Amino acid sequence: MDVYTTQISSGIFSCKLRKFELPKVIVGDQLINTAIQFHAKITGDCFHIILPCKNRDKVFVNGKSLLHGQILVFAQHQEMFIQIPKNYPKHYILVVSSEELARYYGSENITILKEAVEYQNFSESIFVNSYQSLQSLRVIIEELLNHGCLLNFIAVMNAQETLMCLLCDLLELKNLTPNLPIITQSRQLAIIGRALNYIHKSSTLNMTIPEVAKVSFCCVRSLEYSFKTILGMTPKQYLIKRRLQSIHLVLKEDKTKTIAELTKIHGIVNQGRFANDYFKFFNEYPHQTKRR
Q1: What is the pLDDT of residues 120-160, one digit of tens each?
Q2: Which of 178, 175, 171 is nearest to 71 (CA)?
Q3: Reported pTM
Q4: Under CATH, which number does the domain 2-170 receive?
Q5: In the chain, which residues fall in CATH 2.60.120.10?
Q6: CATH code assigned to 185-291
Q7: pLDDT for 155-186, tens place per residue?
Q8: DSSP per residue over the chain, as a string?
Q9: Where are the CATH 1.10.10.60 domain residues in the chain?
Q10: Cα-based distances in Å from 157 to 25, 144, 255, 285
Q11: Do the Cβ atoms of 79 and 119 come closer than 8 Å?
Q12: What's the whole-number mean pLDDT along residues 199-219?
């Protein structure tokens, strides 16, 4: 992004900016103490997304007053003239390439999204703006900024997948609703068949949803849509259940492997949560299965 910034209120200018780079998305937060006006232009083929803060002070974008709680989205070559008031609370930022977002949002929907944000009227939100998705995104970004360097690779990858799915929900357009996959039942069955074939051949089930979508020859949204329609659950929920069943089977048949070894092989990080999920699914804890 090319940025030119001007301070427009008295005081000593201070800008605190943190960021955490994931393979598919950059997240960050920013806190500025004086009122500023900045002129910026997105140079790369990416989306620059600003999550609204809780302050009700007026923010002006391209000369229009921004609504409280409105998401700001800018795409390549798009210019923005933003005026932020003094002591504006911390706001969160996400930057994701069009290519990566297309894997989740759908390549045909990326074109619609780019057109929508190019001509957006900032005095009226063009997004459905799910409050729950917005809150969840804030929590995950804050956790990554504060403790991301302490997390292991699998935990960071899981956080990234959750971020991308929540982002797709947040970017659902109001008037130009993204084209949800219009898929015939035969194609849905083909997608599910390829996905399950790939999942069942894996011994560890340590895979990502985009990876499953790729081998199923569809985007993540089409995969999610097909799983919910045919199986009544998301691909992630299916993987969790499948993982629990796999561990359960090994605990019953192979007494040489420890519970810690099995959870590590299957990419499980939170041992406590795993034990609780296992109990809900089998009505006993892993160590009880092993002992029995």
Answers
A1: 767 777 888 777 888 889 999 999 999 988 888 878 888 88
A2: 171
A3: 0.67
A4: 2.60.120.10
A5: 2-170
A6: 1.10.10.60
A7: 888 888 889 888 988 888 876 544 555 677 78
A8: -EEEEEE-SSS---EEEEEEE-SSEEEEEEEESS-EEEEEE--SSEEEEEE--S--S--EETTEEPPTT--EEE-TT-EEEEEE-TTEEEEEEEEEEHHHHHHHH-HHHHHHHHHHHHT--TTS--B---HHHHHHHHHHHHHHHHHGGGS-HHHHHHHHHHHHHHHHHHT-BSSS--------HHHHHHHHHHHHHHHHH-SS----HHHHHHHTTS-HHHHHHHHHHHTSS-HHHHHHHHHHHHHHHHHHH-TTS-HHHHHHHTT---HHHHHHHHHHHHSS-HHHHHH-
A9: 185-291
A10: 11, 11, 31, 27
A11: no
A12: 83
Extract the tokens encoding 195.
């996905």
Q: Write out pLDDT tens, residues 17-65.
A: 999 999 999 999 998 889 898 888 888 899 999 997 766 678 888 778 8
Structure tokens at 57: 């002070």
- Residues 205 and 243: beta-carbon distance below 8 Å: yes
Contact 198, 156 (CB under 8 A): no
